[in-house]
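How it folds
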Amino acid sequence: GIALPPVLKIGSEYLKNKVARDVITGKKIMCLAVTEPYAGSDVASLQTTAVRDGDFYIVNGAKKFITGGMKADYFTTAVRTGGEGMGGISLLLLEKGMPGISVRRMKTQGWWISNTAYVTFEDVRVPVKNLIGEENKGFYSIMSNFNHERFVLAAMANRYARVCLEESIKYGRVRKTFGKRLVDHQVLRHKVAEMSREVESTHALLEQIAYQMKCGVNDRKLAGIIALCKVQATKTMEFCAREASQIFGGNSYVRGGQGEKVERLYREVRVNAIGGGSEEVLLDLAMRQARL
């Protein structure tokens, strides 16, 4: 997941012992609460506050589009403990049973199972020992965690694209029009070829980045290429979902039946292209990393 890594990486032994085992074994659910109504990819502008009051922080604010928020037992939450900008951001572990936390379901286009939530914090008292890492130094941890999240999203999007390709080939081998199989029509063979070209090249880029991550390349050096990879993967998914829909025709427009996978994946294109950083934000990030 994307909510536990910050605890494992920079959290205290107390926090690791508190949440890690239950989350890893599936007994508890954990979500990442960063995005706000007025601050998405621009994390440095987040407005949720955590004011120190003795041995507690008093948390007020709201989080939006929180995946898994409806069923979460723990919230890895980005808060403002200091001044403006990235230097005033910290990470806190909030718990489901804390008074003042309320969640409501957000109906989404895709990812129905994600339990996407709008989360509100009203004078939530959070023990200081629930601070993840150091106070006012949470921004870099969030950015580092984004690398992991974006890589996972890229791998997932490309797998979705491959499903569209596989389904198209299977359908094209049995469906006949004008006396021959769909895959025997040149125009549709070209669609399969273009889908294959995109999927395989994106997979190769994912393998390259995975090797660099395994070798311990610094997160900051990987941020740009991971951003480009995620854009490549989601554009590939969108392209393959469209081409698969064209191959399936009306069967890709109804829920259920031969085209059910393609229909579902088409609904999930946008969340993949926007979640974890929109394509536009990530392209700009890559160029800033390049220091042209």
Summary: The chain has eight helices and ten strands. The radius of gyration is 22 Å.
